[in-house]
Amino acid sequence: MKKILIIVFTLSIFSCTNLDETIYSSVPSDKFFTTEEEFLMSAGRVYSHLLGYTHYYNIWGTITVSTDEALSPFRQFNQWDDGGVWRDLHAHTFTPDHDNIYQTWSFLFTGISLCNQILYEFSQATLDFPVKENMIAEIKVMRAWFYFNAIDLFGNVPFTTDFTDISVPPQKSRAEIFSFIEEELKENAGLLPDSPSSSYGRATKPFAYTVLAKMYLNHEKWFGTPKWQETVNACDSVINLGTLQLEGDYFTNFKVNNQPSKENIFVIVYDKVYANGGNWARRFRFHQLTLHWESIRTFGILDETWNGFCTSQSFFETFDLANDYRSNTWLYGPQYEATGAPLLWYGWQVDFTPQINSLFDMSNPAGHNQGVRFAKYEYENGLQGECMSNDYVVYRYADILMMKGEALVRQGNANLAVPLFNEVRSRTGLLDYVASDLTLDEIYDERGREFAWEGSRRQDMIRFGKWTAARDFKPTEADNHTELFPIPARARTNNSNLNQNPGYPN
Amino acid sequence: MNTHVKRNFAVILFTVIMLVSSVYVGYAQQKRTVSGKVVEAASNTPLSGTTINVKGTNSAVISDVDGNFSITVTSGDVLVFYFMGYATQEIAVSNQSQIDVFMVEEISRLDDLVVIGYGTTTKKEVTGSVSSINSDDFKSGNITDPVQLLQGQIAGLNIIRADGGDPNGSFQIQLRGRTTMSGGTSPLIVIDGVVGGSLSDLSPNEIQTIDVLKDGSAAAIYGTRATNGVILVTTKKATSGTNKLEFSSYLALQTVDKKPDMLTADEFRAALDKYGLSNSSDHGASTDWFDEVTQSPVTQNYELSSSGGTRALSYRAGISWTKDQGLVKKSSKEGLRTRVNVSQMLINDRLKLDYNATYSTSRSVYADTYILRQAMFHNPTEPVYADENTPAQYGNYYYVGAMEYYNPVAMLEQFDDSSLRKQFTGSINASLSIIDGLKFNTLLSFTESSDRYGHYYGKYYPIGIGNNGYAETYNNHGKYKSLESYLDYSASFNDHRIQAIFGYSYSEQWGESYDAMNYKFDNDWFSFYNIGAGAALKDGLASMSSSKSSSKLISFFGRVMYNYKEKYLLTASLRHEGSSRFGSNHKWGLFPGLSVGWRLANEPFMKNVEWVNDIKLRAGFGVTGNQEIGNYQSLAILRKGSSNFYYNGKWISTYEPGRNPNPDLRWEKKQEFNIGFDAVVFDNRLNVSFDFYNRRTTDLLYTYSVPVPPNLYSSKFANVGIIDNKGIELTVSGTPYVTKTKDFSWNVTGTLSHNTNKLVRFSSDIYAMDALNLGYFGDDLKIYTMRIEEGWSLGNFYGPKFLGFDGNGGAKYEDLDGIDGITEADYQIIGNAYPDFLFSLQNTFTYKNFDFSFLLRGSVGNDVLNQTRVYYEGPAYLGTKNILKSSLDNDYTEGAYYSSRFIEDGSYLKLDNVTLGYNLAIKSPYISKLRIYLTGQNLFTITGYKGIDPEISLSGLQPGIDWYDFYPRTKTFVLGVKVTF
């Protein structure tokens, strides 16, 4: 028995009971945040998160396909339907289960949580470095931008600014959050640089004021009370910085290398090597979305293209093809190879026609070459890797001028607005406006032509009262509840504080 | 009273008396030598290799080639004669000098050893639910993975080769229903005591017995890894006193069992006419795409093994080589498996050392099942190779531009995908007898594995034209070290017998991986063997990665087995185990097991029931865990972000939290209650085993959707739910007919099992989930076909109920809410993937030197979702793509739409294995045995299922879907030979 006890005892002594995990290919959180560079590497995530913005399954797809700018019809030989998400968006038949709307929600609130977490890390830092205060301001402005998008799309949304509070956040009203955003932007803009070029792809003073201008511009639509003068003032804050100007050539803003543009206020910086999103859902892939399978031979693209998204006939017809230089936004008519030879599919020349048979009709599907395609962004010769290197333009100076112009027209000061609109229009080849031209309908159409597929159309359609009207494949809506997207069912499952927007099944 | 029982009783009584007296008498007696001869009773021939052991001591000898033995004894000793498959005999030594023993082949096998983990017991004493098969019962055929040996053999153990006839496909093993949502589902494999081995690295020929611990009380001794049951494999060991060489080989030919029933080119043209579709879809050729990408596979296998040695030092070595071709062209698996075992006895036989070394290597060439899908729906009027209209960038392959539509022959020819796998396992087991009845056992083992995967898409591979060759190679190195140490004490006091173990176990594993990808190659010559040559590397578009991870598992365990007069039996075990994978708040867990047995047959009141040979009632309860949750899941870590941050004109890295950390993460916990009985009746001719189990898994792990904010990511891995599984298992085996001369025998074994499961809960206050939609069909439909809700069984199909066609070929569905149109509100449960019953029937006949056996396997009540029909039964795709022949049976007018129309009853009966063998009666000094056999596998399936094969994957959370890139099974014909020298 003694022997047994000795053996048992020996066994226990030598037996190891340490169960800590050894980490090799990641960094334990408590071993990070020791240098300025590590703080920057963590804060930079806000911008790599933005790479998801342009994806068709994300906010860009949601706010673009739900307008007359873009649709993805069910096509012969292609049958790209994705269970109806595109037609539901385009025809405004979306429900709280709509996947794209959930992805959009998720993008925005992940952004907010990310900012909260980064701000928390900064608040915990014992290390001090020169740009710390500026970085904190920058992250706060980005968080304000995410909230701005959230109240724009969803109205009343969950609200929190404290990462350490692990309780499920309460839903706050659009108005309360509006005030929060307004304050955050005003308070922090001063700590940001004046010029987008010195802080390229990041939040700057002109960016903060642009967001503020957009908030005021839509104030009347959102809350019933106009803030036109505040809109003008916010636009002036950008103009008076003197750091921005219109590019002589409209398309300079969308080149593969569009960093030199003096017009772009805020861009999402893509690079096929350094910022390709790293995964499927974070790549800038307009070429794949819209181009015909065969169009790769027009542009020398090596990626596969999907022959899907195009623009609606009615939207396309607002362009003066003969005179408006901006018509080059579109690819239409017979197509050619880079060599000049006709671009053939099965022996037939590919010819993009504005007319589209149907949005979804198996017995009469859209033709493979129906619908005019998008080519505002330069397609890089030899493009490969499913991510374009052009930087995606979120806001540009032309918008500042036209927002100010619109606010002035709405204040009854069309005369003051004329030079602003003409400054933008001067490079299109079209005749200058006179004050009497500047009806709200004309401003609406001109914004459409200037900002096609730039993410502005949804707000414009709602602000100008066009959102619920009948158009190509959508009848007139009975009420205006679709001006807000439904709060996704999945979000409500996770957060019982959230009430559904009016008009949607609870 | 039956003489058998009487004899057994007498032997036991005698043994007990002897044991008792030996305790008192001690070692005062005179030592002397007795000798004798062991003879096989039926054939009256010498039986070599019988172990003769002086009971209660380590003193043992083995009978030689002529059956002779001699051993040192003292008067009053009991000699135990043991030979696998024969009734163990105990003979008391008084003053004989010659003891001759006739060994009788055992039918009841009550004394067969049963491996239970950290020791053995006998069949009659085991109290948990344990099933065993030994090498005599192994089926023959083209069996490349030992898992196949268990298929259809053990009630409650469902084994499916989900990848059909793919030689590289794996087996899915599910024991007693699905107990987890996201954890591992494979049973724990223990090979000769080494925990966590891989069965496929072992040749079936090297296996002596396989024991399966099914219920919680039996499995609890393996703690956090035992929820899915434990498969204990005992390999063949060196036999001293013999000198044997065995050679075996087989050749297998396969033909496709059933292929997708699509339109031929002529039927396709007729269908275009019928539906008034433009003949621009007629490309003028006639191609059978399935034939273009498949072949008639051949498999070869050769094995050699030697064994021999003396009692002090014996060895066994085996080597096996197999080359298995697949049905899809190019696919194959070639493997070499070797194994060496050396045993040594030292220090007066008090120390026994066993060395085991296994090395296996295999090369696999994979078939992409996407090729099969493309071949299935490809337009049969397209030619295979390019014509004058084909654009140059598609090479020599005919090209039609359409979404996700690619030339299958181009996919096959332009794609290389292969792997090399190596695994080495070395172990040493030392067993030291300290004092009588007390042993100290230590097993040290070391496993190292390496896998290299590589694939190359050629310049004209139809997906990613323009990549100009795309290469990727992935290397994985694994290492596993373990120590299992325990004390084993056994003793008998009067009518009490006790066996106890106490031990410690430590294991640690590491994994490293390296991956490189590059493209834009100058030519296709290099494949993936010169990966730096691609231009994408210089463009910054190639990728490279590596990683390393490790985990630890530590435990203390103990078990006591007690019985009184071999009548009242009790087993209690406890394992205290911790895993590094668990969150800091839950590092260690306790896993108890308790089972009791009552051998009724030994009670006095049963003495007169002559037809009962043995009957035992069993009941057990045990707690086990599932720690297959991956490393580092609980920790707060930062990982390098995939994209950079443009900061002041430079690109700098980004770092992001890896996940929402969960310090409460722990094992899934299963509690199982099992009752059953084993009965042996009618002169040992009928064996019946019955079990009822009720198992509840709590703390189910799942990736929950959580609100963002406050969380950083929208999902969190957490322990929330509860699943119940209940079921019964019945095994009946018997000998319906025996002749006295033993010229003819007939054995039959049948199994039957039934299981139901229920997801009791999968949400809590914090982790909310209404329902989980699964079985997603992409490709145009974008629809979920399955759904899990609280209170439902898993495996439910969910969708609209099909009511038939209206006059115009339009489908009618049940409109539950009465509101026009079929929406999600009209969806209902329209089927369940899990079978109501699984059964098997094995028959073995021997007549003189012939033997004949067949195995039927079946399933009742399993529903199958036929994905091919969802898409291709109907005209929706006709034109660009081909459709099923059955499309022409009705005037369908609608496009692909999911409904109960495509949920079919997948019940089936399969003739799994038929073998006819002949043992040549050879009187040669060189050859002792020669056997030839013919086997047919998967010869026929009786089923009403319209697809290729209703036996499909039942693992995972979306079971029962017959995906349209299924790799068809084959009928296999095998000719084999086995020679023993």
Q: Work out the helicity level of chain B.
A: under 10%
Strand composition percent of chain B: over 45%
What's the shape of chain A? globular
Low confidence ranges of chain B: 1-28
- Cα-to-Cα separation, first versus last residue of chain B: 45 Å
Structural class of chain A: mainly alpha
Number of helices of chain B: 8
Average the pLDDT over all residues of chain B and give the rounded result: 88
Number of strands of chain A: 11
Mind summarizing the main beta sheet of chain A? 2 strands, antiparallel
Task: Outline the structure in words.
The complex is a heterodimer of chains A (506) and B (981). With 506 residues, chain A is mainly alpha-helical. Chain A has helices spanning 2-14, 36-43, 45-50, 59-65, 85-90, 99-124, 132-154, 174-189, 205-217, 219-223, 228-239, 286-290, 296-299, 313-316, 397-410, 414-425, 440-450, 457-463, 489-494; strands spanning 27-28, 157-158, 171-172, 264-268, 330-331, 333-334, 344-345, 348-349, 351-352, 373-374, 392-396. In chain A, helix 4 crosses helix 6 (99-124), helix 9 (205-217) runs antiparallel to helix 11 and helix 15 (397-410) runs antiparallel to helix 16 (414-425). In chain A, 52% of the residues are buried. With 981 residues, chain B is mainly beta. Among the domains of chain B are: 3-103, Carboxypeptidase-like, regulatory domain (Immunoglobulin-like, Sandwich); 113-235, Beta Complex (Ferric Hydroxamate Uptake Protein, Chain A, domain 1). In chain B, 7% of the residues lie in helices and 50% in strands. Chain B has eight helices and 52 strands. Chain B starts with a helix and ends with a strand. Chains A and B meet through helix 1, strand 1, helix 2, helix 3 and helix 6 of A and strand 25, strand 26, strand 27, strand 31 and strand 32 of B. Strand 1 (27-28) of chain A pairs antiparallel with strand 31 of chain B.
